[in-house]
Design brief:
Elements lengths: L12 H29 L3 H27 L5 H10 L9 H25 L14 H23 L4 H18 L8 H6 L11 H25 L11
Helix pairs in contact: 1-2, 1-4, 2-6, 3-4, 3-8, 5-6, 5-8
Family: Belongs to the MIP/aquaporin (TC 1.A.8) family.
InterPro entries: Aquaporin-like (IPR023271), Aquaporin_transptr (IPR034294), MIP (IPR000425)
Keywords: Membrane, Transmembrane, Transmembrane helix, Transport
């Protein structure tokens, strides 16, 4: 999950795209599957959210550790976009072709992950009817996504190791489940994937649109702030 830093992988694009497909897919499987399990274990909404957030934080950390050597473990279109934009001048970021491959793989993986979670719990795959979009959740997604992007840029530009990044990102998402009213989707691919489950973790298509808009808006703002806080270091590597 490196942004504007020397590449930690020189794997061919097909391998990186496969890793992004698996990473985003398994992340949504964890989110949706743990949400379905939580609904079956308790009728208390707070306890359900606790179970869901713990599983997601731990699962995300494991996936970063596993797949970062293959693809840098973005699993998130806004992270891949940040990588492309911040590395453009120094030619260290994703190229437009690689960016398109990453984002396509992430979205397809996320949808597949929701379908897989539904199947494991014998739950029909259906479009979610859960409306989540409000002015409060729009603001929450702005905060959640800005924090995630800023965290990643700060960690990678200060050359933090993959285990440190995995622990920090998992911890942030686990915490953001609780300090944001949106439960911190902070990821357009995950948001799209969660449309395909009418369960605890689902989101209705009409609500997904403002969620994704908020994620993109604040990701752009976070890039500017990160440039002030964490100036880029020179890096000769180029990723295609």
């Amino acid at each position: 999950m490196t942004i504007d830093t020397p590449a930690v992988t020189r794997a061919p694009l097909w391998r990186r795209a496969t890793a992004e497909f698996l990473g985003a897919g398994l992340l949504v499987t964890v989110v949706v599957g743990s949400g379905i399990a939580a609904q079956g274990l308790s009728t208390d909404t707070g306890l359900q959210l606790l179970e869901n957030s713990i599983a997601t934080a731990l699962g995300l950390g494991v996936l970063i550790l596993l797949l970062a050597p293959a693809s840098e473990a973005h699993f998130n279109p806004v992270v891949s976009l940040a990588d492309c934009l911040l590395g453009r001048r120094s030619r260290t970021g994703l190229t437009p072709v690689a960016l398109a491959a990453h984002i396509g793989a992430q979205i397809l993986g996320a949808i597949g992950g929701a379908v897989l979670a539904n199947a494991m719990f014998d739950t029909p795959t259906a479009i979610s009817a859960t409306e989540r979009a409000t002015p409060a959740t729009f603001l929450a997604e702005i905060v959640a996504t800005a924090g995630l992007v800023l965290l990643l840029i700060g960690l990678t530009r200060n050359r933090r190791s993959i285990p440190v990044i995995a622990a920090a990102v998992g911890s942030y998402i686990g915490a953001a489940y609780w300090f944001t009213s949106s439960t911190s989707f902070a990821n357009p691919a995950v948001t799209i994937g969660r449309i395909f489950t009418d369960t605890f973790a689902g989101i209705a298509p009409a609500s997904a649109i403002p969620f994704i808009a908020a994620q993109l808006i604040r990701a752009a703002a976070a890039l500017g702030l990160s440039a002030l806080l964490f100036p880029a270091r020179a890096a000769p590597a180029h990723r295609s």
